[in-house]
Amino acid sequence: MDFEFSEEEQAFATEVAAFLQEVHSDDVMQPWKENFTQLVDTQPKRDFLKKLADKGWLGITWPKELGGQEGPGVLEYLLNEALAYVGAPQIGKGIGIIGKTLIRHGSDKLKAEFLPKILNAEVEFAVGYSEPQAGSDAANMQLRADKVEGGWNLNGQKIWTSGAAQAQWMFGLFRTDPEAPKHRGITMFLLDMRSAGIATQPIVTAKETAGIIEWDINEVFFEDVRIPVANRIGEENKGFTYQMTQFQEERLWAAANMIGGLEDAVTETTDYARQRQAFGRSILDNQVVHFRLAELSTEIESLCALTYQACEQYVAGDNVTRLASMAKLKAGRLGREVADACLQYFGGQGYMAEARISRLYRDVRLASIGAGADEIMLTIICKQDGTLPGQQ
Question: Whole-model pTM?
Answer without folding.
Answer: 0.84
